[in-house]
Amino acid sequence: MSMGRGMGQMSRGSFLTEEEKSSKPKVTKELLVRIFSYLKPYWKQMILVLICIIASSLMSVLPSVLTGRIIDEGLIGRNLNALIKLILLSLGVTLGANLIGVLESYLNSWVAQHITFDMRNAMYRHLEQMSQSFFTSNNQGDIITRMTSDIGGVQQVITNTFTSILSNSITLIVALIAMYQKNWLLATIGILIVPLFTIPTRSAGKTRWEITRSAQECNDEINGILNETLSVSGQLLVKLFGKEDHEYEKYEKANRKMIELNIKEGMAGRWFRVVLNTFTSIGPMLLYLVGGLLIMKYDSTVTVGDITVLVSLLGRMYGPVNSLLNIQVDWIRSMALFTRIFEYFDMPVDIQNRENALIPSVPAQGEVEFRHVAFAYEKDRMILKDINFTLKSGDCVAIVGPSGAGKSTIINLIPRLYDVNDGAVLFDGNDVRDLDLHYLRQNIGVVTQDTYLFNGTIRENLLYAKSDATEEELIDACKKANIYDFIEKQPERFEAMVGNRGLKLSGGEKQRLSIARVLLKDPALLIFDEATSALDSISEAKIQEAIDPLVESRTSILIAHRLSTILAADEILVIKDGTIVERGQHEDLVKNGGVYAELYETQFMKTAKKDSASGA
């Protein structure tokens, strides 16, 4: 029965897909050395695992050998004492093998878990250090998959693939030796028969594997329909366009196809078991036939017990032989898994501290200078060209320009989310590439248009900026950000939950909370990157009330659509096509009749009229 289960299990997942065949990884010495380097810290435990596998494999074969002695010495020899001793010994060996197997499973799992623990930590630390361009150019789902499924798969590789090769190889060798010790002729017949059983197994297994793949694709299609049409936005769209019947027909068609494939898969498995059970009976019957002929006519030294032992050992060989014949599939998938993981580990960290990075001993002033800065996300498409400007401590610079002009890119270069391609960005007179990253970013506060809040309480989101902030500091920051009145109205006050990404709060409330969070950080330089562009006039006005005094008291950079915000700046920089085309005060720029005047007429004046009409 164990043989049937072992062979039946290989019908699932034991064949490579066309994609896997075309992208088989190249297994090199360097790759193997790198893989086993993760095992090196746990070499003592791995030696124990190896000892357990050898002991368990030896002991698992012994009951089959003892069965022959039970028949010959106990039953046929009519020796009750020998019968009892041999039965007890067989039970003891079986129990011992199982106990050793439990120990081996524990050690194997312990090693696998610790290796995945090490790899996850190393991967997380590596991804934390990757530049912003990595996250903007790579699919988020793929990043999460490398962190979870791929590294999680390493555990299966260690607990299944590696140990399966060892365990099955040792079991097969021990069984072969035991068989040849009993009778070389019967052992040879048994060995010649074994490969024949893999033919129907692989044929039936491949058919079932193809059906299973089709069923999985169909299941993915059904899940896609459910996700699209039963989501909040999806079901609303279906109703508004009156597509209920159309979507039902799509679902019914996919569901019917799924049922048909499930029936095919179930019947393929049923016929497979019929064929398998028939074939697995041939081997033992053939050994009984040849063994009987030897006993009756040619070799009187062969006993009934010997034949029984050989039949039992032959049964134990089917599982390991099938596993080893199909180990190539698991091996290729394992190597592909490690290759995918190592691809991420090998991605260079573009933004990192230089050796002996500078940490100034004096408090930061927040002064910024751009010297002939050029930058491109892609080599053949320049975003910024020869940007030059200086922001003195306590001053405010407003950056305006059409969408896509490069305004946010300028902001991103200051805290080194990206590095310049040419020129230099200076912070307090030091090239930002020479400064310690933590020091630099700790002294820069950025309020973005797309506010991100963690799914926790208001307090937890605020303390993200300063974990040891006092209650007085929290209240003061919230008052400055014009959000404290809202917090006081909440029954839980600072313990109120904000929801996933802050969905329980309005856009204006989230934005003001993010301003309070930045203020708790107490940075030398404040940056507002279109912090009010996506809000209604009332929310925008409340945020403006919070921003205005901050701009007057701190070194700041503003990217804004609101005229009053721009008027508060000491200098306005007008960006177009990645260059500073105009700079100066509001009145002078309007008189020049250039890009700023056009923006003023088409954008800022509309905002001003809107504010005036609403009394904002």
Characterization of the model:
This protein has 616 residues and is of the alpha/beta class. Among the domains are: 20-182 and 321-348, Up-down Bundle (ABC transporter transmembrane region fold), CATH 1.20.1560; 184-301, ABC transporter type 1, transmembrane domain (ABC transporter transmembrane region fold, Up-down Bundle), CATH 1.20.1560; 450-522, P-loop containing nucleotide triphosphate hydrolases (Rossmann fold), CATH 3.40.50. Helices cover 66% and strands 10% of the residues. The protein has 22 helices and ten strands. It has helices spanning 2-9, 18-22, 29-37, 43-76, 80-129, 132-137, 140-182, 184-229, 232-240, 244-298, 304-325, 327-345, 407-413, 437-442, 458-463, 471-480, 484-489, 507-521, 537-553, 563-567, 586-592, 595-614, and strands at residues 368-378, 381-391, 396-400, 422-427, 430-431, 444-447, 525-529, 555-559, 571-576, 579-584. The strands form two sheets. A six-stranded mixed sheet has the order 6-7-8-3-9-10, with helices on both faces. Strands 2-1-4-5 form a four-stranded antiparallel sheet, with helices on one face. Helix 7 (140-182) runs antiparallel to helix 11 (304-325) and helix 18 (507-521) runs parallel beside helix 19. It is elongated, with a radius of gyration of 36 Å.
